[in-house]
């Protein structure tokens, strides 16, 4: 896709915020129509990103190792380093939330040979399982707040916090990408989160929370995190 076409595409996308009370400023169909001129390779990159981050494609009870194998294969298919970095941010967030939920449900620390999460902090989480913030308080300041919300069963507040953390991570990655494929991809990631929040159902979230707790108690904690 030429630079001029990216300029026109990005310029046609309305500004978007996370806490919209109504639907995002552009609906799914109109957004898809704006993307129709993407080159096949760019469409493939966007689709790979969507498949990595789409929580609803992963059912409760999916084996962690199988899920990680799938994610690692998809990440390897991404051509753009900035998108790989964005995926790492999101998957590390999901991993930390999964660890909080596992511990909250009374689960033990993952075994040294257990494939249970993604990213750079697996060993530190396992080693510091007994610490409230897994010893990551300085580098991951939101962990303590998420733990407190989890302990109190504040599902809506936790959902909002995790969306905000993920949103800010995307904004950091988006810096320097104004009129390129990355800019479009980061917009779509934000749109997906804004759309999900606008349709947030606290009752459904409470049910989902209970399902995740039951999975953790059964010894099958999930990496997938709806909010992120």
Give an overview of the whole structure.
The chain contains 10 helices and no strands. It is mainly alpha-helical and 228 residues long. The longest helix is centred in the middle third of the chain and has 24 residues, at 81-104. Helix 8 runs antiparallel to helix 9. It starts with a helix and ends in an 11-residue tail after the last helix. It has one domain (3-217). The protein is globular, with a radius of gyration of 18 Å.
Features:
10 helices; mainly alpha; single chain; disordered C terminus
Query: Share of helix among residues?
Result: 55-70%
User: What proportion strand?
Assistant: under 5%
Number of strands: 0
Biggest beta sheet summary: none
Mean pLDDT: 85
Order of helices and strands: HHHHHHHHHH
Count of folded domains: 1
Tally of helical segments: 10
How far the N terminus sits from the C terminus, by CA atoms, comes to: 29 Å
Derived structural class: mainly alpha
- What global shape is seen? globular
Runs in which pLDDT lies below 50 for 5 or more consecutive residues are: 57-61, 216-227
Radius of gyration (CA) equals: 18 Å
Summarize the structure.
This protein is mostly helical. It has helices spanning 3-11, 28-34, 40-53, 64-77, 81-104, 122-127, 142-152, 155-174, 181-198, 202-217.
């Amino acid at each position: 896709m030429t630079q001029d076409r990216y300029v026109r595409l990005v310029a046609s996308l309305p500004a978007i915020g996370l806490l919209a009370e109504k639907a995002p400023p552009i609906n799914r169909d109109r957004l898809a129509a704006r993307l129709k001129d993407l080159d096949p390779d760019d469409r493939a990159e966007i689709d790979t990103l969507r498949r990595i981050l789409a929580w609803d494609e992963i059912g409760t009870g999916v084996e962690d190792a199988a899920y990680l194998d799938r994610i690692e294969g998809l990440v390897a298919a991404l051509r753009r380093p900035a998108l790989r970095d964005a995926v790492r941010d999101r998957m590390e967030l999901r991993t930390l939330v999964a660890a909080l939920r596992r511990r909250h449900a009374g689960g033990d620390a993952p075994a040294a040979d257990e494939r249970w999460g993604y990213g750079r902090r697996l060993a530190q989480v396992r080693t510091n399982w007994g610490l409230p913030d897994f010893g990551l308080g300085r580098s991951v300041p939101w962990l303590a707040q998420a733990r407190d919300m989890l302990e109190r069963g504040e599902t809506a507040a936790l959902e909002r916090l995790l969306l905000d953390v993920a949103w800010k991570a995307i904004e950091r990655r988006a810096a320097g990408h104004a009129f390129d494929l990355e800019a479009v991809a980061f917009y779509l990631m934000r749109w997906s989160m804004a759309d999900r929040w606008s349709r947030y159902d606290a009752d459904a979230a409470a049910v989902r929370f209970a399902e995740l707790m039951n999975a953790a108690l059964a010894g099958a904690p999930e990496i997938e995190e709806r909010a992120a």
